[in-house]
Design brief:
The chain has about 140 residues and is of the alpha/beta class. Helices cover about 55% and strands about 10% of the residues. It is built from 8 helices and 4 strands, in the order αβαβααβαβααα. Strands 2-1-3-4 form a 4-stranded parallel sheet, sandwiched between helices. Helix 3 packs parallel to helix 5.
Length: about 140
């Protein structure tokens, strides 16, 4: 039963994330390319941006970069990633952007690994036939 719940939660999380990101005004913020690869490997389809690039844009362009847009911040759950998340959330919302919290909250709630880049191997190590299960998502 526990394995079934894990599969259900994981697929549900990916489907919700993909539903959020169907809009071109939604960006998923990650720390690096390994995070993007891990998420895409599991079937996440999104417009990704790197946290460091977004912070640079916020300094250079400011409000024009985020106004009217929604951001899903999936930085790591280590000390550095949490600090980065707080900084991004604060700056984005101060400049008129929106931060969608549900994917980050559920990621933590479901017990996924603290490093986003480890998610794919974490899931694939627990679900033998992952590719078959998500064939419709990709």
């Amino acid at each position: 039963m526990k394995a079934e719940r894990f599969v259900y939660n994981t697929i549900s999380w990916i489907e919700k994330l993909n539903a959020f990101t169907t809009s071109p005004d939604v960006e998923v913020v990650v720390e690096g390319p390994k995070d993007v690869n891990s998420l895409q490997d599991l079937g996440v389809k999104a417009n990704f941006c790197f946290a460091i690039d977004l912070l640079k844009d916020l300094k250079e362009v400011g409000e024009r970069r985020v106004y009217g847009k929604t951001f899903i911040i999936l930085t790591d759950f280590d000390r550095e990633g949490i600090q980065l998340y707080k900084k991004l959330k604060s700056e984005i919302t101060e400049l008129g952007g929106k931060v969608e919290e549900l994917p980050r909250r559920e990621y933590k709630k479901f017990g996924f690994p603290p490093m986003i880049e480890e998610l794919s191997s974490f899931v694939r190590g627990r679900v033998e036939c992952w590719d078959q299960m998500i064939a419709d998502l990709i």
